[in-house]
Specification:
This protein has 298 residues and is an alpha+beta fold. The chain has two domains: 123 residues, Alpha-Beta Barrel (N-terminal domain of MutM-like DNA repair proteins), CATH 3.20.190.10; 124 residues, Helicase, Ruva Protein, domain 3. Helices cover 22% and strands 20% of the residues. The chain has six helices and eleven strands. The strands form three sheets. A five-stranded mixed beta sheet has the order 2-9-5-4-3, with helices on one face. It has a four-stranded antiparallel beta sheet with strand order 1-7-8-6. Strands 10-11 form a two-stranded antiparallel sheet. The longest helix is centred in the last third of the chain and has 20 residues.
Length: 298
């Protein structure tokens, strides 16, 4: 699933490609993508003649601002947007097409078919699902060390599932939680209420730094993610923990371990991220190092 850096990159790209364009018509070939209004015909009729003014992000949601409507879209697992000329072939699994007056089209493709689109009156989107219960925005100026501590510090929940919960901090998914916790030198099974002041500071800095660098790199293309221009992200080449199970830690040389926590594959360095004492965690699935091969520090 695209996380904050990927969705931010998509929004920035689409803002360059479609802001200022006017919709003539909308074709919906998979009605269940459209949730509000429930009838695809009403969705298409409401957008006809509207101009897109900006494309913004809230958490992992795309917020498209039109004349007097707000379109809120979620890419879910593999949804993607792309801008094409109207005479270009339409790819398989393209479910929604926004036709513009200049002869171009914004197409939404979704192999898994889990994506969603909702239309709201301006301002209404903040009071109703899916945006009304979202947590802190990590790249916003309102996201401070103190706001992070106030939101999480009294909870006895383990750090990884807590940081994945969009009701507390938005935009973080499996990739960037693993990376931020590695950078902060915190084990994902530590509970929020066990962190000391210095650890909160490290976690805050790690979240901001990891997401900031990922946005600059255009996100991580682990599976099928590309931006609105069909370009891959590059941050996957900078990952230090996620996806590196069985490889040597680039900081200390210990073997990166992978195990399941809260149903999610989790990657840690056992030396850089010491396990909390008394943990009843499931045993890590360690990938053995070949005989005679010493870990290298990169």
């Amino acid at each position: 699933m695209p996380e904050l850096p990927e969705v931010e990159t998509v929004c920035r790209t689409l803002n360059q490609l479609v802001a200022g364009k006017t919709i003539t018509d909308v074709t919906v070939s998979l009605p269940r993508i459209i949730r509000k209004p429930a009838e695809p015909e009403m969705f298409a009729a409401a957008l006809a003649g509207r101009t897109i003014h900006s494309v913004e992000r809230r958490g992992k949601f795309i917020r498209i601002v039109l004349d007097d409507l707000i379109l809120v879209s979620h890419l879910r697992m593999e949804g993607r947007y792309g801008v094409y000329k109207q005479d270009e072939p339409v790819e398989t699994h393209t479910h929604v097409v926004f036709h513009f007056t200049d002869g171009t089209e914004l197409r939404y493709k979704d192999v898994r078919q889990f994506g969603t689109m909702d239309l709201f009156k301006p301002g209404e989107e903040w009071t109703l699902p899916p945006l009304n219960k979202l947590g802190l925005e990590p790249l916003d100026e309102t996201f401070t060390l103190e706001s992070l501590r106030q939101t999480l510090s009294k909870r006895s929940t383990k750090l990884k599932p807590l940081l994945l919960d969009q009701a507390y901090v938005v935009g973080l998914g499996n990739i960037y939680v693993d990376e931020a916790l590695f950078q902060a030198q915190l084990h994902p099974e530590r509970t929020a209420d066990s962190l000391k002041a210095a650890e909160w500071s490290r976690l805050y800095d790690a979240i901001r730094d990891t997401l900031g660098r990922a946005v600059e790199a255009g996100g991580s293309s682990i599976k099928s993610y590309v931006n609105g221009q069909g370009e891959m992200g590059m941050f996957q080449h900078s990952l230090l923990a996620y996806g590196r199970g069985g490889e040597p830690c680039r900081v200390c040389g210990a073997m990166i371990e992978k195990f399941v926590l809260g149903g999610r594959g989790t990657h840690i360095c056992p030396k850089c991220q010491p396990k909390p004492k008394g943990s009843a965690a499931k045993k890590a699935v360690k990938q053995a190092r070949p005989k005679g091969v010493s870990p290298k520090i990169h």
